[in-house]
Design brief:
With about 500 residues, the protein is an alpha/beta fold. The chain is built from 17 helices and 19 strands.
């Protein structure tokens, strides 16, 4: 009798579980469907949900739904539009009438400049000096030298800020400058900097540094892939000097990572009116993170008059989920499509969506020489496998792929025809295109692009070219891992 009872009870429980699981799958599938995500992302979510219903539901709650954040971020975007619209309107009119834009090389880049004016609210600036900083040693030396010169304010915004040797050196400088009367403000991403110690933050606050997290989360050490992260790396000093690029604040960026070793990265130092737009990005992010509105563009302390510079045309483009347009994705797409001779790409992650992949293959088949440098030593294996899954189809179109050997390459650069280049924080992946807050500089200056191309040549000389024969010899387990990583890449 008891055996019959437990058998019947078990069948009832299993039946209820089956029914509830089916209802759960149907409801969540409907929600995913109605969100109108990228089709590949929708398929990936539905596959996970149907194979692992309960686990898939929990993962979706963590990674997929961010309705509260979307509302907050949308208000941020509205503020940004109000801030920049006057400048944008004037420049859209100017670009039609300034003679320089009807002469090469700017004539062929006029469409890209115009695109970023419209989709990223990114004014172009001409009164600039700029220096490409090819490694962490040079970048941090310049950063600390300029921090020491600060008189009114220091603004820092970083995805990763670590309590290690370089992080403590930065802390000491910021505290000393704050005590001298300089206003010091710091934004750190709550997920990227999840390991930042409470003592580090307390020391800064206790000594006059205002430090704020960007979109704090409850369990960042578990949810390390949460959406809507601030991936930017920005420093603005007195509104006159700025830094941006690929380097975060951590010892690994100086080559001290125990496994990855040498860290190859690229940063950019700017002086001139382009710094004003790094400042705008920081002030908007500060308003969003702290609720404090600091200044508008009439405040000469934050937007000082720039005199005596000319020549280097730079366009600072911010992108993120606060915009109606995927500005980085569209800029990369336009860059690739504008190429006549060559495209040189350096990126730590290569997970293009269908449009970028098609643009690359179309350019290569049209005769454009395309070379891509990726890390030979991965920092994240799943992302590395996903990147590898694209090799064969890109190489079939004639694209050359190289794997950097001395350590980890983290620079994010696209150079086209030796005339224009993008340098910044955005990777060539769907996370940077759709989910992260990023900032890139478009450089329309041959001297700067020549420097980036020279660095590319040195990196390529230290890289191994991937051959079709190597891909053919991949063992089946590796092929399976690469295919699985690619399938999941839209939600990674």
């Amino acid at each position: 009798m008891w055996a019959q009872f437990w058998s019947s009870y078990g069948e009832t429980i299993l039946g209820l579980y089956s029914v509830s699981t089916t209802i759960l799958v149907i409801v969540v599938s409907f929600l995913i469907f109605m969100e109108k995500k990228n089709p590949y992302k929708t398929i990936a979510w539905l596959a996970v949900l149907n194979v692992f219903p309960i686990l898939g539901f929990l993962i979706y709650l963590v990674f997929g739904q961010n309705l509260r954040k979307r509302k907050l971020i949308r208000s941020k975007y509205i503020n940004e539009i109000q801030h920049l619209q006057g400048i944008i309107d004037r420049q859209i009119d100017c670009i039609q009438h300034i003679r320089d834009f009807d002469q090469e090389p700017l004539k062929s880049r006029k469409q890209l400049i115009n695109l970023l004016l419209h989709n990223a609210n990114a004014p172009f600036t001409r009164s600039n000096k700029a220096e490409v900083l090819t490694d962490g040693q040079k970048a941090f030396a310049n950063i600390f030298a300029e921090l020491e010169k600060a008189e009114h304010h220091i603004h820092l915004e970083y995805y990763i800020l670590r309590d290690d040797s370089i992080g403590r050196k930065l802390k000491d400088v910021l505290i000393r400058k704050a005590k001298s009367g300089v206003k010091v403000r710091v934004i750190y991403d709550a997920v990227g900097s999840w390991a930042l110690s409470k003592k580090y933050i307390k020391d800064l606050r206790d000594n006059g540094v205002d430090i704020q997290p960007f979109l704090p989360v409850m369990m960042p050490f578990i949810n390390n892939k949460l959406n809507y992260r601030n991936h930017r790396k920005i420093i603005v000093i007195d509104g006159r000097v700025g830094f941006m690029g690929g380097l975060n604040i951590g010892d690994e960026y100086l080559g001290y990572h125990p496994r990855l070793g040498k860290w190859r990265d690229t940063h950019l130092q700017l002086t001139g009116t382009s710094v004003h737009f790094l400042q705008v990005i920081f002030l908007l992010d500060w308003d969003f993170a702290s609720g404090e509105k600091l200044a508008d563009q009439s405040d000469k302390h934050y937007f000082p008059e720039i005199k005596g510079f000319n020549g280097k045309l730079v366009q600072i483009a911010a992108s993120g989920p606060d915009s109606d347009w995927e500005a980085v994705r569209q800029a990369y797409f336009a860059l690739i499509n504008s190429a006549q001779k060559s495209i040189k790409i350096t990126t730590p992650y290569l997970i293009p969506d269908e449009a970028i992949s098609l643009a690359l293959k179309t350019a290569a088949l049209s005769g454009v020489d395309i070379k891509i440098i990726l890390p030979g030593i991965p920092d994240h294996k799943i992302v590395f496998w996903a990147s590898q899954s694209y090799f064969e189809e890109l190489m079939e179109a004639g694209i050359e792929i190289y794997l950097y050997q001395p350590g980890f390459i983290h620079a994010k650069i696209i150079s086209v025809d030796g005339e224009v280049a993008s340098l910044g924080s955005a990777n060539l992946d769907m996370r940077s295109f759709q989910l992260n807050f990023e900032v890139n500089a478009m450089l329309y200056d041959k001297e700067l692009v020549d420097k980036l191309d020279a660095d590319f040549a040195l990196d390529m000389a230290q890289s191994v070219k991937v051959e079709m024969a190597d891909l053919a010899l991949r063992p089946l387990p590796l092929r399976i891992r690469q295919s699985a990583a690619r399938l999941l890449s839209p939600i990674l």
